[in-house]
Structure formats: C-alpha cells, structure tokens
Amino acid sequence: MLATIVACILLAFIFGTGARMLRLPALIGYIAAGVLIAPYLPGAVAERGMVTAMAEVGVALLLFSIGLHFRPADLLAVWRVAVPGAVVQIGIALGAGALVGIGLLGLPAAPSLAFGLALAISSTAVATKSLEERGKLGGPVGRLALGWLVMQDLVVVFALVLLPALAGGAGAGAGPMLLGLGKAALSLAAFVLLMALVGRRVLPWALQWVARTGSRELFTLAVLAAALGVAVLASSLFGVSFALGAFFAGVLLGESDVGHQAAAEATPLTRIFSAIFFVSVGLLLDLTQVADQPLAALAATVSVILTIGGSVLALLLAFRVPPRIALLVAAGLAQIGEFSFLLTEVSIGQGLLPDTVRGPVLMAAIGSIIATPLLLKAAEALAPGLERRLAGRKPATAPRPPPIPWPVLTDHAIVVGAGRVGSTIIGALRRHHLPLIVMEEDRAAVERLAAEGVPAIWGDATRPEVMEAAHPERARILVLALPGALEAREVLRLVRQANPNIQTVVRSHSETETIWLEAEAGVGLVMMGEREIALGMADFAMQRLGLAASTAQATVDVLRRRPAEGV
C-alpha cells in the first residue's frame, strides 16, 4: 500500500513536470507514470485495486468541487439542450461502436451494443479537468458540458440495469428488464427527493455549525465527510454512481454561504486524487491486449473522437448554441474514461463481452484523453471561422448566470477582515451607503453582518475559490484590514490578477513591510498602526499648540512619507 501511494504521487509529479516542460498537458505525464508502474511491466509494484479505489475517490471529489460552483438553476437552464442532445449523441456513438465490435471483433448483436455503449460515455473527470485548465469550466461552456455529462451519467445508471438482461439474451423476456428499469428509476427519484427535502437543509446547517467552532481542521473533515458520505449513501442504498452522489452533495452545499470555503478546503485533495485517476488510466493499459487487436483499438479510438465530438457539435449547432461554445463543448466531451471502464468490466463479468475487448476500450480511452487538449486548442482556433460562416444565424438564449444572494455590485469596495480595524472601515462606508463586500473568516462575524444587510462572504480570502465570490474584476478598491502580512500579500496578488488597476489600501505591521508594499506592490496607501497612532497624536498636539489645521495636516503628510527612523 505504502509503495503504491508513494509511487503514484512521486511519479505523477516527475512525469507531470516533464510533460509541462515539453509544453504538453500534465495529464499525459500522469498517464505515462501509470504505464510505468503497471503490473504488466517487470518490476512494477503498484497495487491495481488500490489505485483504482483512490481514482474513484478522486473522481467523486472532483465532481463534488464542481457541484459547489453550480446551482440547480444552471443545470435547469441547459436541460432542454442537454437531455435530448445527450440521448441522441449516445445513440449515434453507440451505433458506431457497435459496428466496430461487429466488423473487427466479431461480436454478436447484443455484445456489440454493450461494446458500443462503452465507447459512447464521456469521462467527466477528463472533460471537467481539461475545461478547468483552459478557464472554461465556470462559464456557459462549463455549464452546458456539465449538464451533458450528468445526463450521460444517468444513462449509465440505467445501462447497468440493462446489461444483465442483454447477457441473458432474448429468452430473459421484457418483464424482468422493465422491472429492473422501474426499480432504478424509483431509486434515483428517491435519492433526488431525499437530497432536495432533507440534504438541502441538513448539509448546509451541519457545515455552518462546524464553521462556528472556529476549527479549520474540523471544517475540512466535515466537507470531506459530506462529499464522500453522500456518495456512499447514493451508491450503496440507491444504486446511483459514487461520483454522481458526490456531485449532488456539492450542488446542495453550493447554494449555502459556506460553499466557497468548502470548495477551497476540497481543492487540494481534489487535485491530488484527480491526478491519481489519470495514473490509474495508464495503470490499466496492457500493451499485449492492444497488440492483439491493433485495428480494433485504432478504430475504437477514431470512433470515440469522431462520433462523440462530431455528434455533440452537430447537435449543439442544431439547437442554435453559439459556435464557439459548441466547438469547445464538443472538444471537451470527445473522449471516454471511468464509466467506460465500469461498463466494460460489468459486461465482462456478466459474460456479455470477452476479455479481449479490454485492449480496444483502454486504447480508445487513452488515445482520446491525450487528444482532448489538442482538440480544445483546435476548437479555439476554428471558432472565429465557424462564427463568420454562421454569422447570420440567430443564437439560442445563453444560460443564465448563477444567482447571488445580493444585487450585482460594480465599483464596490472589497473589505478583507472585519475585526476592530475592518469594522470601523465598514461602518464608515455604510454610513454613506457606499457599495461594499466584506470577506471574513470568523463565521459569527459574517452572520452578524449578513443579518444587518451587509454582503459578507465567509472563508479564507487567500483562496481563489473564495475570492472569486467577491468579483474583484468589478471592484474599485481593495481594503486589506488583515492582521497578517503574508495573508495580505497573497490576497493582494490574487486581486491584482483579476483586476490590475484596482486601488488598494493595506494595513501594515512593520516599516520593512511598508517599504516593500509601497515600492514593489505599488499599493495606493499603506497604513502602519504604530506610525498612524503617532501621527494622530502629533496632529492633535500641533493644533493645540496653535498651528493651523492645514499646516498640521501638511506636516503629517510629510512625516507619513518618511521612514520611521527619519521622524
């Protein structure tokens, strides 16, 4: 176990770094690391079952994190496109895959359908990871792709019920198959109903209660318990896939005001385990199986890329989705992964498919996964030309952005920290009804501000997932009232990335820190506590000794610009 974990993490880092140095996506390096430690090569020590289990946790955490950034309204907005589109796309890709099974693998009709289905379901982990790396996951491309993927995952749930019926042949009859489908539909409906009625209230309440304890460790554990606990509940009691259960947990928590901090806590583990998922893909590759069926492996790979990608693009354009969005969604979905492996293994276990199909399916998965970043790059290059050709067409209504708990703010102040300093600044801004958003780690302080009608975000402002909620790209000024200098620097860096021209005022704690902030960070105003106390007292003394207020203020301004040693 220890050797497997160390090998996965160490080699993923080494090969991922190598891939980035060659200007390739890191996931290609992760897959190469998996091939190197696969049990099919001499001297390999990896335990395949353990890596597969860790990969399943990684996919679940990835979907949980994605769910935190989505709202039910986002999915409903794309449902009228995603539901019919995914069903038709699966039918087209299934048919093409079945032809490959019949023509090159010699499969009968029923097994060829199972083989075709394995080549028709996109990998949620690959699609979301690839879109996230290109910054497309949070916009309309991400919402449409995720709605499509969720529909595919639901098809997998029902396909797992149908596979035993296909394995039994025509003699099994339609009755047992319809009964199984009915049970699956009822189980899925019961899970969704439980999450809507109970989980929607219990999960946010539980995390809010933990947040009030002030323990970051307990909150991190609570986030993981919510994600994986709901995933286990979904898979063991309701027959819903482990990853899809975690996604629903994320969607429910994303509606609460703890969602941003939950995303920040889950992100590091998600990145580690999602890298292990790609290692597990390489770990499954048996080159001897591929060598036995080279034409079938090549045909399966081409079938996946062309039929999934091509049908998604054609369907989205038929639904009048803007060309750029359609191209990016099609490129992101043109691959297969974890659910294809699951369907293949279940079919082999049922005696529906022979062991020899593993090679073509694995080759199709690895080939299409490696091609995905290249397809996305090509999609961005082709988008302007396609837009010009379809310029006269009226586009469909774009998906609505997710709702926020307060009106959209522009030219607002972001006040980070609501302690003694921050609360004074907040009070001054509120007195004149100036727009502001407060960011604070103290849960009780956030709840108090929210009750007073002040837009307040609970979480660590140094985490990108939390800072995004304050929309720094639309803000006019950043007020850093944090007590820690290192945290202030990190927040300043994040905000400047989103809005290089934002005005800033920062609380400093030493002369060295003040000089650095004024010189290197280009901060508009740096306030050092002890110096401001001294200047305030000096101003009071000068005026009481007869100096005019303007003269005293001019002296204070001169002294503020000097180092403390020169005062």
UniProtKB/TrEMBL annotation:
InterPro entries cross-referenced by the UniProt entry: Cation/H_exchanger_TM, RCK_N
Places the protein is found: Membrane
Keyword terms of this UniProt record: Membrane, Transmembrane, Transmembrane helix, Transport
A matching Pfam family: Na_H_Exchanger
Segments traversing the membrane: 49-70, 82-107, 144-166, 178-198, 218-249, 269-288, 295-319
PANTHER family, per database record: CATION_PROTON ANTIPORTER YBAL-RELATED, SODIUM/HYDROGEN EXCHANGER FAMILY/TRKA DOMAIN PROTEIN
Organism: Falsiroseomonas oleicola
RCK N-terminal domain residues: 410-527
Record's signal peptide: none
Membrane-topology annotation of the record: Multi-pass membrane protein
Keyword Membrane attached: yes
Principal location listed in the UniProt entry: membrane
Family: Belongs to the monovalent cation:proton antiporter 2 (CPA2) transporter (TC 2.A.37) family.
Name of the protein in question: Cation:proton antiporter
Presence of the UniProt keyword Lipid metabolism in the record: no
